[in-house]
Amino acid sequence: MVGTVLATHALTRDFRGFRAVDGVDLAVAAGTVHALVGPNGAGKTTLFNLLTGFLRPTSGRIEVGGRDITGLPPERIAGLGVARSFQITSLFPMLSAREHVELALQGRGRLGWRFWRSAKLLGRFRDRADELLAMVGFEELAEVPSDALPYGRKRALELALALALDPVVLLLDEPTAGMGLEDVDRTVDLVDRVRAGRTVVLVEHNMSVVGRLADRVTVLQGGRVLAEGAYDEVRADERVITAYLGAPDAAG
Amino acid sequence: MSVATKSPSLVRAAARAPRRLRWALLVIGLAIALWLPNGLYPAVAVDMLCWALFAVAVDLLLGYTGLLSFGHAAFWGTSAYATGLVAIHLGVPFPVAVLSGALVAAVLAVPIGYLAVRRTGIYFAMVTLAFAQMIYYIANNRRGLTGGENGLQSVPRELFGLDLTDAYYFYYAALPVVLLGLWAAWRIVNSPFGRVLVGIRDNPARARALGYPVHRYKLLAFVLSAFIAGLGGGLFAMAHRFVTLDTLHWTTSGKAVVMVVLGGIGTLWGGVLGAGLLVRLEDWLSFSGFEAVGLVTGGLFVVVVLVFRRGLWGTAAELLRRRSGLRRVRGGEQG
Ligand SMILES: Nc1ncnc2c1ncn2[C@@H]1O[C@H](COP(=O)(O)OP(=O)(O)OP(=O)(O)O)[C@@H](O)[C@H]1O
Ligand SMILES: [Mg+2]
C-alpha cells in the first residue's frame, strides 16, 4: 500500500453557526489523482482553503507527509510543497503572464529579499517561465498585462502558477470551469502529464474529466463525505446518484 | 519584441517609457537639481530636497506596497532629533549625523511596522498615526533631550572644516546625500524585492499562495521607507540647524502624503515633483504675506485630484504613453 501524503481528521469549519465542512476524514494516497466532487455549496472550496491555510479549521487536524500543518499560514504550507489553483482566477492584474510565472519561480529562493539588486536578475527564470507557459498552451500574449487576457488564457495562467511551484501536492479547484471542449481536453492531457511524481487533488464538476483522470473519488455533500471509492463504484452509488450525479445538469 | 518586454515594468507591464526618453529625463532632472539654488532662494531649494526624499519614501509604501502611512512624521522627526543630537554631542561630519539619524528611524520602524503591517487600508493608516502621536508626546515630555517646545537649538553643520553657513553651499553638500536616497528608492522599486511588493499590493492572497510571507515583506518595505524618510528628516534638521516638534506633528505626515498624491501615486518621481511644487508654493504664499496658506494648497490639492486623477507625473506619463502607442500603431500600418 502506498503512503498517505495528505490527510484530514474530523476536519470542521463553521461560518457563524453554518457548518460548511463537517467532520471530513480524507486520506489521499501518494502519487494518485484524487477527485473531490459534490454539488454547489458542498464545501469543496472551503476544504481547499482549510488545506492551504487560508482558513483556520474550527476543529480537526490536517497532515501533509505525516506532519501536522493545522494552523500554519498559507505561505508556510506553500513552502512545504502544497500548491493550489483558485476556482475564481486570482492573478496580478498589471503583471504579464511571464512576470507572473517568474514571480512564482522566484518565490522558491531568497532572491525576493534582494532589494539592492536589479530586477534584471529575474531573467534567469525566463527560460523556465516560457517552458511552463508553453506547457499550458501559452504560445503568445506572454507580455500582455494579465487583466487584458481572455478568460481561457487566465485559467491557463492560473495552472501555470501552481505548476511553477513544482509542488508535491497539487490542489486544482475546477481547472476546466468555463472552458471550451478543446481547452478541457488540453487541460486533462496536461494534468495527466504533470501528475508524474506528484499527488493531485482535483475539484471538478465535469464527470468525464473525473472519469478520465481520477484514481479515487470523494463525494461531498453539505460539508460531509457522502461516499468514497473508485470512479465506477462511486458512480454506481445510490446516494450519490440522488445527491449529485442524478441531477439533470451533471452529465459530463 | 518591444522595449517594454526587455525591461518589465513594475506598475504597469509594457508601460515604461522608452530607454532614450528615460535617459533624457534623468539628464534634465540632474540639470535642474544642479541649477536650482541659482534660480530660487537656496534655503527653499534645500527644503525641496528634504521633502523630495520624504515624499518618495511615502510613495514607496503607498504606491508600491499599497500601504497608506499617516504617521511617517514619526520617522522624519525622530531622525531630525537623532541627527541633531548626534551632531551636537559627537561633532561628526553632517552626512554621518544624517545617516545615523536615518538608522535610528529605521530601527524605530521595526516595532511600529511589525504591529502596523498586520492591518490594511484605513486601519493601517490609523495605527501608524497613533504611533506617530505617541512619539510626538514622548518628544514633548522628554524636554531634557529634545528641548520640548523650544526645540533642539544650534545644531552644528560640520563637514571637514568647510564653511557651509551659506545655504547655497550647503545645498551642493546635501545634494549627493539626496541623490543617493533617491537612487536607493529607485533601486528598491526595480529590484526582485520590488517585484514581490507589487505582487503583494495587487493580490496579497495570491502572493501568499506562491509562498511569500506577506507581513515580513511589508515590514521590510516599511523599514526601508522609514530609512529614506529619515534621510530627509536628518537633512532637514541640518538645513534649519534646529529641530522643532513640528517635525513630528501629524500635519507633517499629511503634507508628505499630499505631495505624493499631487505628483502621482506609484510613480516615484512624482513625489519629487509634488514636493518641489508644494514647497515652492508655500514659500511664495508666506512670502507674499498671505495668511491662509493651507486654503490655497488645499484648494490646489482638490483641483489636481479631480482633474488629474493620476497626479501630475502620472497624467503626463499616461499622455506620453498614448502618443507613443498611436505612433506604434501607425508604424505597424506602414510596415
Ligand atoms: N467565507 C465564507 N463565509 C460564509 N459562508 C461561506 C464562506 N465561504 C463559503 N461559505 C459557504 O459555505 C458553503 C460551501 O461553500 P464552498 O465554496 O466551499 O462550496 P463548493 O463546494 O466549492 O461549491 P461550488 O461548486 O459552487 O464551488 C456554501 O454554502 C457557502 O455559502
Ligand atoms: Mg468551489
TrEMBL record, chain A:
Give a Pfam family name.
Answer: BCA_ABC_TP_C
The UniProt GO MF terms for this protein read:
ATP binding; ATP hydrolysis activity
Alphabetized, the UniProt keywords read:
ATP-binding, Nucleotide-binding, Transport
**Domain of life where this protein originates:** Bacteria
Record's protein name: Branched-chain amino acid transport system ATP-binding protein
Question: Which Gene Ontology terms of cellular component type are present?
Answer: plasma membrane
PANTHER family from the xrefs? ABC TRANSPORTER ATP-BINDING PROTEIN, CONSERVED COMPONENT OF ABC TRANSPORTER FOR NATURAL AMINO ACIDS-RELATED
List each copy of the ABC transporter domain by range: 6-247
List the residue ranges forming a coiled coil, or say none.
none
Automatic annotation (TrEMBL), chain B:
Q: Which GO terms describe its cellular component?
A: plasma membrane
| Leader peptide range in chain numbering | none
Its primary localisation, in coarse terms, equals membrane
Annotated membrane topology is: Multi-pass membrane protein
Q: Would the keyword Phosphoprotein be found if you checked this record's keyword annotation? A: no
Molecular function GO labels? branched-chain amino acid transmembrane transporter activity
Q: What domain of life does the UniProt record list for this protein's source?
A: Bacteria
* Membrane-spanning ranges: 21-37, 98-117, 122-139, 168-186, 219-237, 257-278, 290-308
Localisation per UniProt entry: Cell membrane
Q: Which UniProt keywords apply?
A: Cell membrane, Membrane, Transmembrane, Transmembrane helix
Checking InterPro entries in the record gives: ABC_transp_permease, LivM-like
Keyword Transmembrane included in the entry's annotation? yes
Checking PANTHER family in the record gives: ABC TRANSPORTER ATP-BINDING PROTEIN, HIGH-AFFINITY BRANCHED-CHAIN AMINO ACID TRANSPORT SYSTEM PERMEASE
Q: What is this protein called?
A: Branched-chain amino acid transport system permease protein
